Amino acid sequence: MIRFEQVAKRYPGGHDALIDLSFTVAAGEMVFVTGHSGAGKSTLLKLLSLVERPTRGSVHVDDVDLARVRRRRVPQVRRGIGMVFQDHRLLMDRSVFDNVALPLVIAGAPRAEAAKRVRAALDKVGLLAREKAAPTLLSAGEQQRVGIARAIVGKPPLIIADEPTGNLDPQLSVGIMQLFAEFAQVGTACWSPATTCT
Amino acid sequence: MNVRRRPPRRSAPEATPPKRPRAPRPSAGARLGRWRDHHLYGLLSSLGRLAVRPLATVLTVTVLGVALALPLLLQAALDNLRAFSGGLREAREITVFLDPDVGAAAAAEIAAGWRGRPDVAEVIVRTPEQGLAEFRQLSGFSEAIGVLDSNPLPSVLVVAPAGAAADGSDGALIAAIEADRRVDLVQHDAAWRRRLTAIMTLGERAAIALAALFGLATLLVVGNTVRLDVQSRAEEIAIMQLMGASDGFVRRPFLYAGLWYGLLGAVVAILIALAMHLALRDPLAQLIASYGGQLTVRGVAPTALLATLAGGAALGWLGAWIASTRQLRRTA
Ligand SMILES: Nc1ncnc2c1ncn2[C@@H]1O[C@H](COP(=O)(O)OP(=O)(O)OP(=O)(O)O)[C@@H](O)[C@H]1O
Ligand SMILES: [Mg+2]
Fold first, then answer.
1. Is the pLDDT of residue B332 over 70?
2. What ranges make up the beta strands (E) of B109-265?
3. Could you tell me if B161 and B95 are in contact, meaning their C-beta atoms sit under 8 angstroms apart?
4. Looking at B40-44, B268-272, B296-300, which range is the least confident one?
5. DSSP single-letter state for residue B117
6. Which of A6, A82, B226, B296 could cross-link to A159 by cystine, CB 3.0-4.6 Å?
7. How far off is chain A from B8, nearest CA to CA, in Å?
8. Closest residue to B239, CB basis, from A28, A91, A107
9. Distance between the two ends of chain B, CA-based, in angstroms?
């Protein structure tokens, strides 16, 4: 499902974030990437979501060469990925419900069905009661879980999560990891880099 | 950095090709529903954006309203002037004052002679007695006239030119009348009308130029407002793009916001125009009446109102499109 071939990423300014990275991930696999801070884990995710382009080498997702994806096609690729960000990246002026619904609104899902799926996703991360809250009022861990609900709500074939359990206590972390494992079981490659993981 | 993996619990994904089946093309009904939902989303979030900062929105809309009102008012002024000058244009008569020593019989003779001309439709003779009676009716003159022992007024011939003469074509007739030795003075409106036509042409050109200028101002005001809005929402736009929002999806709320700005600006412009009409109608009617005119003051034409609404909306949309597209090119 994911194939990195001799990928290198050098940021403008000459900093090498990734050098000669090759690996593959099959569908249904759940993978943890570990490394010290600044090792390039987030960079890896940015390459997958086409936020950054590799300096050398190639990245394939689902047999699609990402280097050949033109700007106009980028949104389509991203709609197939559920992303959890290290810094949450929630819309602070929208409710928890609206944040989680965003991928469905973008995909144009019928509203009644979307509402059902948003509540199911919020239920899975234990935030069903907070659907009307503003994200700013939530704790860091709760914000993290809103981000996770947003990533899984569209049932994407691929989930990438950047330190999704960084702000969670061990018990919640296990719960989230189980959630991702469930996804992997139903044929979803789940990709979850974390410095702290079991 | 190292990659640790938990092997798939099922063996199936490895055995079968991991390629997932292409989603079937959604039905026309589903696509229409999605299109409607996307536009509804754009519409609602654009309204939300205007409502979040009411003061800024009111200021922007008022500026747009003033900018759009000026061409509208000029247009209305021109409409009134055109109607007024149309009334003048009908008055093409040439007033001919004969020498005072030309008698009534001679005047009738001259009139008969001119009636024979092909470019003359009608000649009316006003005898000195008729003239005196007319003067008497004007208040304040009757006593003055009473002390006169003889009628000082000449005979007057009012000549109506024939045909739908354009400007200047009465020139030959006027020249012929002026050449007559029995004629003392010729009065006609040709010069005044020519001047009025020139003023009207100038006014119409100025209206077009002003409309273009203020249209450009509308475009710039909306464009700049939307540009600032896009900039202040850079983070939100980045998140939506990461979630797979297309440029069209990101841009739509801004386009609707531009549309609202333009439409609301046009509504304000129309309100300004109506207020001006109400304020100026009566004094203007009095002014026209004092010139002996019977014209009613016209309001702004309904077509001009519709054109302002359509133009405002189109300019708002276009300004928002230019600004948001430029900003999106930069982020992406
Ligand atoms: N946009 C950028 N421009 C320049 N350098 C960058 C940029 N983004 C990341 N880097 C550098 O690339 C290296 C890898 O960054 P990355 O964010 O991938 O690390 P990470 O493994 O996610 O670290 P952490 O565990 O702290 O999140 C870092 O040294 C960082 O300074
Ligand atoms: Mg990181």
1. no
2. 120-126, 156-161, 183-187
3. no
4. B296-300
5. S
6. A82
7. 5
8. A91
9. 29
Question: In this structure, what DSSP letter does residue A131 have?
Answer: T
Under 8 Å between Cβ of A159 and A1: no
> How far is Cα B234 from Cα B242, in angstroms, rounded to an integer?
12
Best to test chain B binding among A22, A48, A69, A89 (most B CBs inside 10 Å): A89
Q: What ipTM was reported for this prediction?
A: 0.89
Length, in residues, of chain B: 332
* Among chain B residues, CA nearest to A152: B243
Q: From the CA of A2, how far away is ligand 1's center (Å)?
A: 21
* A73 touches B239 (CB < 8 A): no
Q: Which residues line ligand 1 (CB under 6 A)?
A: A 11, 13, 15, 17, 35, 37-43, 86, 195
Instruction: State whether A29 and B4 contact (CB < 8 Å).
Output: no
Q: Which residues of B touch A93 (CB under 8 A)?
A: 236
**Measured distance between the N- and C-terminal CA atoms of chain A, rounded to whole angstroms:** 23
**Joined tokens for residue B112:** 């008969």
* Angle (CA) A35 A40 A45, round 5°: 110
**What's the Cα-to-Cα distance from B18 to each of A25, A95, A157, A186, rounded to whole Å?**
11, 37, 11, 12
pLDDT in tens, B45-84: 888 888 888 898 999 999 999 999 988 888 888 888 777 7
Q: Which residues of B touch A (CB under 8 A)?
A: 1-10, 12-14, 18-20, 33-35, 37-38, 41, 235-236, 238-247, 249, 332
Nearest ligand to the CA of A41 is: 1
Nearest to A75 by CA among B238, B18, B31: B238
pLDDT for position B86: 66
Q: Do B262 and B317 touch, CB atoms closer than 8 A?
A: yes
Please say whether the beta carbons of A148 and A190 come within 8 A. Answer: no
The per-residue pLDDT for range A141-152, each reduced to its tens digit, is: 889 889 999 999
Q: To the nearest whole angstrom, how far is the Cα of A126 from the nearest Cα of chain B?
A: 22
Comparing CA positions, the residue from A50, A75, A28 lying closest to residue A189 is A28
| Measured CA distances, B278 to B65, B191, B289, B309 (Å) | 18, 34, 17, 20
Q: Least CB-CB distance to B14: which of A26, A49, A181?
A: A26
What distance in Å separates the CA atoms of residue B265 and residue B26, rounded to the nearest whole number?
40
Model pTM score: 0.73
Q: Which domains does chain B have, with CATH numbers?
A: 39-87+195-331 (no CATH), 92-188 (3.30.70.3040)
Alpha carbon distance B262, B314 (integer Å): 7
Task: Identify the CA nearest to B90 among candidates B287, B299, B289, B293.
Answer: B293
